[in-house]
Write a structure and sequence with these properties.
Blueprint (H helix, E strand, L loop, with lengths): L2 E7 L8 H7 L4 E6 L2 E5 L4 H8 L8 E7 L10 H11 L2
Antiparallel strand pairs: 1-3, 1-4, 2-3
Length: about 90
């Protein structure tokens, strides 16, 4: 199943992230990687994920959804997360 990285910036002061986070949590396999970065597994396309999350955004917010595959490098994550990433990034 495809794996995607989802990154967002909500620019409205006092923006409520909860609605967006609740939608991201609906993806069965997910990892809240960093403050505004998630990795999710879904059969949906990147455009479908974007369209699903878009109602949580204001006109000045930013959202990126990109498919992950192949080569990647990281630092500072646990062994468990490292194994999780390796399984999903294997060619």
């Amino acid at each position: 199943m495809p794996t995607y990285i989802v990154s967002y910036d909500l620019h409205q002061q006092g923006q409520n992230y909860e609605r967006l986070i609740e939608k991201l949590k609906t993806y069965g396999t997910r990892w809240h990687m960093q403050q505004s970065v998630w990795i999710i597994e879904t059969a949906q396309s990147a455009a479908n994920v974007r369209d699903f999350l878009r109602p949580c955004l204001d006109s000045n917010d930013k959202l990126f959804v990109g498919r992950l595959s192949g080569e990647a490098a990281w630092y500072g994550y646990s062994t468990e997360i490292t194994q999780w990433l390796k399984q999903r990034l294997a060619p």
